[in-house]
AsmA family protein (Pelomicrobium methylotrophicum), 828 residues
Amino acid sequence: MMGDVASSRAAVSRRTASAGRYNTLEALEKPAEPTGVRTTDARCKRPRGSSTSRLPRASGPSMKKLKIVLLGGIALMAIAVVGLAIFVATFDANRYKPQIVALVKEKTGRTLELEGDIQLSLFPKLGASFGRVRLSERGRDQEFAAIESARISVALWPLLRREAVVDEVALTGLRAHLVRFKDGSTNFQDLLAVPAPKSKEAQVPPAAAEEPQPPFAIDIDQLTVSDATLYFRDEAQGRELTLRNLNLKTGRIADDVPSVVGVTFAAAGKRPDVQLDVRFQGRLAFNLKARRVALNDLSLDVTGDAAGLHRLQLTVYGDVTANAKTGEFAIDKLRATLTGQRGSETLDVAVEAPKLVLAGEHFSGEKATVNVRRAGSRGTLVANLSIAGVQGSAREFKAEPLFLELDGRQGEQTFKASASAPLAGNWETREFQLKPLKVSGTALGPGVPGGKASAELAGEVAVSVAKETVGARLQGTLLDSPLSATVDVRGFTQPKVAFALAMKTLDWDRLTGGVVPAAGKKAGTEGAEAKQNPPLDFGFLKNLHLDGVVKLGELKAAKLKATDVRLDVKAAGSRLNVAPSATLYQGRLSGTLSAVGTQPPTISIQQQLAGVQVGPLLKDLSGTDRLEGRGTVTVDLNGQAGSVEALKKALRGTVAFKLNDGALKGVNIAETLREAKATAAALRGKQVQAASGEKKTDFTELSGTFVLKEGIARNDDLRGKSPLLRLTGAGTVDIVNDTLDYVLKATVVATSKGQGAAELAQLKGVTVPVRVTGPLAQPKYEFDFGAIAGDVAKRALEREIQRKLGGAQEGGAPAPSPLDALKGLFQK
């Protein structure tokens, strides 16, 4: 019966619904009736437009069901929360430490130590905290990283909306040891390993691939890192860097929420030596979905010692923005300053770049400047570099003219120089060009010969990074002399340089602003110069490859003068060879000079001067004027030493000379003999004379060889001829102290012809010893007349014996006694 009742109710419901649909259609088709007129439906006999009480009653069960669902959901949630609370209260994560340690060991090969307790919390935040955690190196027990404590808390309710709202992340006492080995691998690369890519069949075509969406929104209220230490060691470069007392603190980190970020740490390193304190602050804003990040009000402050600078202070301000989707990168209002000290010098650097924008394949920049000032006891130097603007694309670019200006002062000397050129380049071919390039410079001051020196050059410079080449072509004037130069460089790691330089005239003294000090000064008389002992270091030759030629029409250097000068220069394998040739002092120079970058370096000199007037040469070279004549000088020397003074002692070899028609200046041996006293007592003494520029002993030939060893030049084979004398000699020259100790022997060969021949006729065959000592610039000559008297007495005695045996004097006169003979010879 109950079933019949239900069937009847269902049928009524179906008929009612059908009638409703029919009445609705009928109402749409029939015209509206006048207001106030009631109509009835023929089938249901109910006034049309009357209210139906079934509709409100039909919604009642639905509302009840909704209430039931909501109450059930709340109950289930409450049960889940209570259950989660019970789980957190009763769950002991520390029981799973062995499993966690084993899993880390299996996956990474590293040992994980969890010394502290793991604590979980639910209210008011869902979080966890850890005690001391230590992770070892892969396959070793040595520590790789460790933390003293860590804490993280997450808001619970946002998790239900698939949002991770992290209340706080805090790390204390973080330590990490990072190493780059000699083979280029690192001790942390296994932790950064990227999974192998899927097979081609499993990969989604790029066109169909959709950009991944993060499953959770990131919202961190605060991130804190306290007292962290990072060690980095580069075994390939022998470098070490340690960051201590590293502290990081941020505000809220979430999409489109500006957050203040602050970082401080102390850095210490070796190769280069670094001791720095660093403070950084800025406002960080980002949007992960838009892949956009901005760092505004950037402020970087660095103080300490680095790069050879003491009391260094670096400050950087500006704004940086980047958009990975659009490929835009921009720097705005960049300002940087650097100050520091190197010895007694101070350095100041300032950089300004108002705007630099990289948008996709195109970039542009406004005017940028770099200003450098260096000041110290040696002088000041100011350098200003400006770029008017730059624009281009990923393929090529062009910068408005670069302008460099130098302004310096050293003592009473000043100089100014400038260079300008547009810069163009192609990123694809990696080729760049400065063309046209203009360079000019001027030096002023009392130390500059003539008071002024200038240079004007023009040309171009081209660089190819892909081919590793640099080419430069310059023409102009230097010191009012025409100049042309070409330089070609191949290879950047070990560059090979080919060059050619040609000048009409070159005054080296004028170019360098001074003259090389003359030799021959007494040791100790010039305190400042005596202390100077420049080191010889040719370590730069190790990677130097040169092949070039220098041609000079005229050259003046340290008062030396030469014409038609050519220098062929080659450097390779730590060896430098220079083959000079020139016309100088009516003769010709040829030979080679070489230096080898050994430790200490090795120097070799092989030179020949043919047909040279040695008088003017020695005067210009050393400031001394003690020898005249024309002939050949051959030099063959080599030595190994670490300084100029040490090289003087280390030089070994020979210096040979052969001169004609010259003179020994400073003494006149023949005149001294003529002026000697006529008494035997006078002849038994010695006479010392200082060198005199007005006196000289002429010769027709003079030759000899000096052998150098341990800073001493010894000569034992001096030979000389003159119309009145024959010269021999032996002695030494101390190259280190510029002194000599030499004995010159002059034998009288006077004839009836020539100057003073008659006065010296009676001394024919007599040898006069002359000892020369003292500094090279002002030697002293000591005549041993006692040796002359003995020689004369011996010869007179021989003649008397011959007379007693029946000999006679020339012309039939009787032979005089020895004493009478001595008196007679010197009564002139």
